[in-house]
Write a structure and sequence with these properties.
134 residues; mainly alpha; elongated
C-alpha cells in the first residue's frame, strides 16, 4: 500500500510540473487543461502528504486544489454565457502585425534606402517640375 501512496505523490509532481512547463514554454495556454492537471496533481500531493504527515505540504496543496477548482468553475461559467467575439484579424504575408515590427521595418528601410520620406518628397517635386510632353 505504501507504494501506491508514493506513486500518487510522484504522479502529482509530474502532473503539476508538466502543466507548468507546458504553459511556460507556450505549448498550452493557462486554460482548462492546465487547471485540471493542477487539480489532479494537488489531490495526489494531498494524499501523499497526509500519509507521510507532511501537514505544511497538505495545507499548501489544499489551497492549490481550491484555486484550480475555482478557476475551472469560473471558466465553465464564462463558457456558458454568450460572449461577443471579435472578427479575427487578417494577417497578410510580409506585412508587419505589430508596432514593434513596423518600427524595425522602418529602421531597416532607412538603413538600406536612406531617408525614404525625403526621397519621396524629392520624387514628388521632380514630377511637378518635369514638363509634360504634348
Amino acid at each position: 500500500m505504501e507504494l501506491l501512496w508514493e506513486i500518487a505523490g510522484w504522479s502529482g509532481a509530474v502532473l503539476i510540473l508538466s502543466a507548468y512547463l507546458s504553459v511556460s514554454m507556450g505549448w498550452w495556454k493557462a486554460g482548462k487543461r492546465f487547471q485540471v492537471a493542477n487539480l489532479i496533481g494537488a489531490c495526489a500531493f494531498i494524499i501523499n502528504g497526509a500519509v507521510h504527515q507532511a501537514w505544511p505540504s497538505v495545507v499548501t496543496n489544499i489551497a492549490w486544489c481550491l484555486i484550480s477548482a475555482i478557476a475551472i468553475l469560473r471558466m465553465r461559467a464564462t463558457q456558458e454565457s454568450p460572449v461577443a467575439v471579435e472578427a479575427p484579424q487578417v494577417q497578410f504575408p510580409g506585412v508587419p502585425d505589430t508596432t514593434g515590427q513596423i518600427a524595425v521595418v522602418e529602421a531597416i528601410t532607412y538603413a538600406v534606402h536612406g531617408d525614404v520620406a525625403g526621397r519621396a518628397a524629392e520624387c514628388q517635386a521632380s514630377l511637378r517640375e518635369t514638363p509634360k510632353a504634348a
